[in-house]
Design a protein that fits this description.
Blueprint: H1 5-13, H2 24-32, E1 37-40, H3 49-57, E2 61-65, H4 69-81, E3 86-89, H5 95-107, E4 112-115, H6 123-130, E5 134-139, H7 159-166, E6 171-175, H8 180-189, E7 196-199, E8 207-213, H9 218-233, E9 238-242, H10 246-258, E10 262-266, H11 272-284, E11 288-292, E12 305-310, H12 317-324, E13 334-340, H13 344-355, H14 359-374, H15 381-391, H16 396-405, E14 409-410, E15 417-418, H17 426-448, H18 453-460, H19 474-477, E16 482-483, H20 486-501, H21 508-515, H22 521-525, H23 542-554, E17 558-560, E18 568-570, H24 572-580, E19 585-586, H25 592-604, H26 609-616
Parallel strand pairs: 1-6, 1-7, 2-4, 2-5, 3-4, 5-6, 8-13, 9-11, 9-12, 10-11, 12-13
Antiparallel strand pairs: 14-15, 16-19, 17-18
Length: 617
């Protein structure tokens, strides 16, 4: 099976490419030969071309469903510049543009029509499509359909019904971040029983991934951020800094601007006109830095982003890898730098709680929606989410999503409709909470335990084809991972044994106090001075012992729990190692000399190339 020669000719004539990237030909062939197709491709590997080329080649209309309005606008502009007949129908389009797009659909002159998923709630829109020849129905960001995915969208759950109703000649779904479990859910959710699933891999060889523990304090995080931007942008290009909150976006952008970087904030709370101007400046100029929440970047195709810095720990490996995938889309070396301190766990837990409503919150949200429905309220999905969030708690938004998915709330066929009795079960909510907790635990594993950053990520997505070490991430570049022997091995065994005897009830500091034989009242009153490991490392400094515990965590011999007061406990690997007195492989301890050198480097970053670039911008 191969692509028709005429289709490959369009590759050069329309898109300006002399050849396809690895994996693209197989996907395009599958689509053109009318096979239902699920393509899983890493961000930056050219997935858009895999449906744009067939759309230009095939007679008829291609519908592209995407939740990313920024991406839709960029792609429509780029296609029009190439002479392709493309348009969009989204809430961001002007009325005259929507009318022009609808007229082109009726006249059969469009190649591609991009729509947001909520557009299918309109019966008028469905009637428009039923009169068109649909050559291809594309579901972009297809992980949004999966209840196991990291970015579930209720409107995606209805797309299988739309596919049955519209009967397109071909269906193709695309995503960059889908575990094997999510891939199965996508195929099932779209009703594509015989789909050809093509996974091109998840590895981005030009991305250098690293994690840096900064220690507590905004000043330390800011210095580390500036250092990463300076390092990666010294020869040009742009930078992205992801933060957890709108307030942080404003604050960090202001601080970076004060250091000389051409930095601006971007978040959903900004007026639409300002957001668009910020995005346009970032898209068109060199040396810009955007400090943003996840409202930015997922749909922006800027090829020279040299570095993506995560100022706060993201919520999952999926969201992290999609966000860091904004860097290096030109295939040139780029960096993904994740900054980390234990305080970040609070942000991560807040997001976890917001995305996982309790049964009590779900019940309160259902009662609230029932009250509004009784008053004849005609609210959209977004309006009800905002109202519930404002009047109940932040997690009420997630409760609305869950209630709609199970049919307890409906927005179709007129005003808001709510079942008198809630059918959403506690078990469904608990299962979601467990999945989200597992995702966050996996992300913490990436931060603390990954022996190789890249290998950890690709194996998380089910890709086992890669070498033990990538050779370029911070872990692989560290030469000090070694098998312990002699006194170093005995100290590690003592520390691990102490962690085991404290049974996960205490944090690192208390473990250190026990190992050093502290006479603190908190130690004595709890009877911890009676443990056999009490005082075994009293000849060592507090800093040395804390570092040893951190190295045990990084080696997956111990784990740190999530919560406001993190506890340390043995991992399964640690328990087996301790039981069998097996060898231990740990990274080397930090030395005072190394710490001073790093501090000097940070001081030298205060005057950065960003200052010179800002004056030129």
């Amino acid at each position: 099976m191969s692509s028709p020669p005429d289709a490959l000719l369009l590759l050069q004539q329309v898109f300006g490419h002399s050849q396809l990237r690895p994996g693209q030909r197989e996907i395009i062939d599958s689509v053109l030969h009318e096979q239902a197709t699920l393509a899983v491709m890493p961000t930056g590997s050219g997935k858009s071309l895999c449906y744009q080329l067939p759309a230009v080649f095939l007679p008829g209309l291609t519908i592209v469903v995407s939740p990313l309005i920024a991406l839709i606008r960029d792609q429509v502009r780029a296609l029009e510049a190439r002479g392709v007949q493309a348009a969009s129908l989204t809430s961001a389009d002007a009325p005259e543009d929507r009318m022009r797009a609808e007229r082109a659909v009726r006249e059969g002159t469009l190649d591609l029509l991009y729509v947001a998923p909520e557009r299918f709630r309109s019966t008028r829109f469905l009637e428009l499509l039923r009169g068109a020849k649909l050559a291809l129905f594309v579901v972009d960001e297809a992980h949004c359909i999966s209840q196991w995915g990291h970015d579930f969208r209720p409107d995606y759950a209805k797309l299988s019904e739309m596919i049955r109703l519209l009967e397109p000649e071909r269906v193709a779904a695309f995503t960059a971040t889908a575990t094997p479990e999510v891939q199965i859910d996508i195929v099932r959710g779209l009703g594509l029983a015989s789909a050809n699933t093509i996974v091109t891999g998840f590895d981005r060889e030009n991305l250098e991934l690293s994690v840096q523990e900064t220690g507590r304090g905004k000043a330390k995080k800011l210095r580390a951020t500036a250092k990463a931007l300076e390092t990666w942008m010294q020869d040009g290009g742009s930078g992205l800094v992801y933060v957890a909150t709108r307030k942080s976006a404003e604050e960090v952008a202001k601080e970076l601007a004060g250091l000389g970087f051409a930095a601006e904030p971007y978040h959903a709370g900004l007026p639409p006109e300002r957001r668009q101007k910020v995005q346009d400046r970032f898209q068109k100029r060199d040396g810009r830095v955007i400090v943003a929440t996840t409202a930015f970047g997922m749909g922006v195709d800027k090829r020279d982003v040299r570095v993506v810095v995560h100022y706060h720990v993201p919520s999952s490996v999926e969201s992290y890898y999609q966000e860091v995938g904004r860097a290096g889309r030109d295939d040139q070396p780029a960096g993904g730098v994740l900054l980390y301190d234990t305080g970040d766990l609070r942000y991560a837990l807040m997001r976890l709680e917001t995305s996982c409503p309790t049964p009590q919150v779900a019940q309160a949200t259902h009662r609230y929606a029932l009250q509004l429905a009784g008053q004849g309220a005609d609210l959209s999905f977004d309006e009800l989410c905002q109202a519930a969030e404002d009047n109940i708690v932040a997690s009420a938004r997630a409760a609305v999503i869950a209630l709609e998915r199970c049919g307890d709330i409906s927005f179709e066929g007129g005003p808001l409709s709510v079942r008198p009795e809630m059918t959403l079960s506690s078990s469904v909510l608990e299962a979601r909470a467990r999945r989200e907790r597992a995702r966050l635990d996996a992300l913490i594993g990436y931060v603390n335990r990954a022996a190789c950053r890249r290998r950890y990520v690709v194996e998380y997505f089910g890709d086992k084809r890669h070498a033990e070490r990538c050779g370029v991430c911070d872990r692989c570049q560290s030469p000090d991972v070694q098998a312990l022997a002699g006194e170093a091995l005995r100290e590690a065994q003592m520390a691990l044994s102490c962690v085991a005897r404290m049974r996960g009830r205490y944090g690192r500091s208390r473990v250190v106090e026990v190992l050093q034989g502290s006479r603190a009242l908190s130690v004595l009153s709890a009877g911890l001075d009676q443990l056999s490991t009490y005082g075994l490392l009293k000849h060592r400094s507090r800093e040395h012992t804390l570092d040893l515990l951190d190295r045990l965590v990084r080696a997956d011999l111990a784990v740190v729990t999530l919560g406001e007061f993190p506890k340390i406990m043995l991992s399964e690997h640690g328990a087996e190692t301790l039981r069998a007195r097996a060898p231990m492989m740990l990274s080397g301890a930090a030395t005072p000399k190394k710490a001073k050198a790093e501090a000097g480097t940070r001081r030298r970053t205060r005057r950065s190339p960003g200052r010179r670039r800002a004056k030129q911008a």
